[in-house]
Amino acid sequence: MINVKNISYQISKKQLLQNISFSVKSGEIVAIIGANGAGKSTLLKILCQEINPTAGQIFINNKITNNYNLGELAKLRAVLAQHNTLSMQFTVKELVTMGRYPHFKHRPQPNDVAIINQTMQETGVFEFAYRDYNTLSGGEQQRVQLARVLAQIYDSPNAFLLLDEPTNGLDLLYQQQILNTARKMANKGFGVVCILHDINLASAYADKILILKNGQNIALGSPSEVINCYNIHKAFNINVQLMPCEGFNCPLVVPSFLSA
Amino acid sequence: MQNNLKKPLLILLSILGLVITISCCLGSVNIGFSSFLSIVSNQIGFSTSINFTPQQQAVLVALRLPRVCLGVFIGAGLGISGAAMQGLFRNPLAEPGLIGIQSGAALFAVMMIVLQVKVFTQLTSLLGYYALAIAAFTGACITTFLVYRLAIQNGKTVITTLLLSGIAINALAGSFTGLLTYMATDEQLRSITFWSLGSLGGASWQTLGCLFPFIAIPVFVLPFFAKALNAIALGEAQASHLGINVGFTKKIIIVLATMAVGASVAVAGIIGFIGLIIPHILRMACGADNKIIIPASAILGAAVLTLADLVSRTIVAPTELPIGIITALIGTPVFIYIINSQRKKNYQ
Description:
The structure holds two protein chains of two kinds.
Chain A: E1 2-11, E2 14-24, E3 29-34, H1 40-47, E4 55-60, E5 63-64, H2 70-76, E6 77-80, H3 92-98, H4 110-122, H5 138-153, E7 160-164, H6 172-187, E8 191-195, H7 199-205, E9 208-213, E10 216-221, H8 223-226, H9 229-236, E11 240-243, E12 252-255
Parallel strand pairs in A: 3-8, 3-9, 6-7, 7-8
Antiparallel strand pairs in A: 1-2, 1-4, 4-5, 9-10, 11-12
Helix pairs in contact in A: 3-5, 4-5
Chain B: H1 2-25, H2 33-44, H3 54-88, H4 101-114, H5 118-127, H6 130-150, E1 152-153, E2 156-157, H7 159-183, H8 186-197, H9 205-221, H10 226-232, H11 236-241, H12 246-268, H13 274-286, H14 290-314, H15 323-347
Antiparallel strand pairs in B: 1-2
């Protein structure tokens, strides 16, 4: 379980996050939504120890994150960043192998190789294992990065997956594939934190949604609790309508300009 | 996996062996292959049959062998530092010169040559032949340290700032060097030119002994950072998510590269292009995995520099051409070819 307790972050005098608290249990997907500049990425960077909060603490499995070393953390949480550029021309398989780096010293062990193949198959990139990563399309590259991230924690029970806008720039099919994979991982017992832009995708896949605005938590709860016209208007400053959708536990959010 | 790793390295090692043998045999005094073998086995005490002239033996042992070894050392140092720098800077165009190692060394060497200040003359009388080398090495360390300090923000080195401050410090050092060149006498100018184009002419067993630790430590330590450098190719943040201590890796690689390149420049002057091109050629042939590229760059760098030195001392014998001219002359077309073929690949 990840426990975020009263996190605040400020640069010079600008308060980017204010008193954010929430928790991520094993088997749960928590989506973070909010307008641009709301502090979503900053929060994720703090969650993965890329930056230190100015106040507050984070506990992973009841141990404060500062007490973990880099190697221990790497086995406990994997991060899919928003922007991924590769400076050298590695093949897909070499790149996914890097996901196992925390687990082997010099050479991947049979167990590592099995996991690498498994995650490449799960994300549908196995067929271009030996292609140059830089020649792939954006959607393929994103799935390769996902395979790497999955490989990193695949055999670590109680590990966490942190995804920063994993569906960014992808078409509908890939968006679904990636979130389906996240769901599968959650069902296996991993905790998932995911920044999303699409409110409907968030309510379709997440167990809990955290809505941020100007670095503040304006709503936290299950999709049916927090997705309403009031919260969406407050967070995004747009008027929306809710449309019930069959077979779907939460109403769809539709911008109001669509209906007169 | 294991096989993949060993094969290219074995091929390269045999190429290096071949180049060393050829370089030992050819020169203003030619030594036949059988004579070469005979001298070597005699020196080791392996056999006593004599199949060579005393002159051949003297040339090989006192002159040519140290020179070939110097080529191997410096080529290995330049090649491996180049590969590590390109990995660290996430930029295939990076080379040790970018962070001011060579320009700093050049500035201090030129200062030694031109400014006959008391400190320098005292230093020369104290250290004799090595004074210039030590000054150059000090210069390399000072500029690199300066560039490194300038690039630290909030306790972290920012790579783009590092490159930019490298460019700034390079320009500054270059202008001071230019100023000194302007002040120099004709004779000083000649030694500046010779020094700045590089030469392995100063080789002796003594130089080799001094240079050895500066090359050996980087060559043996840098391959252990191959995994870290692979991960850094994903991005610095991504590498740290994978449990790599990026800050530590940066520090060690910069220190080791400064060691190898600074010492090389100190002994042989500025030899360009090896650090830049060798890793490129290898990446085209065996992929980007630093587990291969890092050690292979040392081996191929050694082979290419030894070969370049062979050309430099035989092509206009009995005099010799500065080796920097040869490496740039061969290096530039190869480099343009690489840029071109990569561009074609990207358009496919």
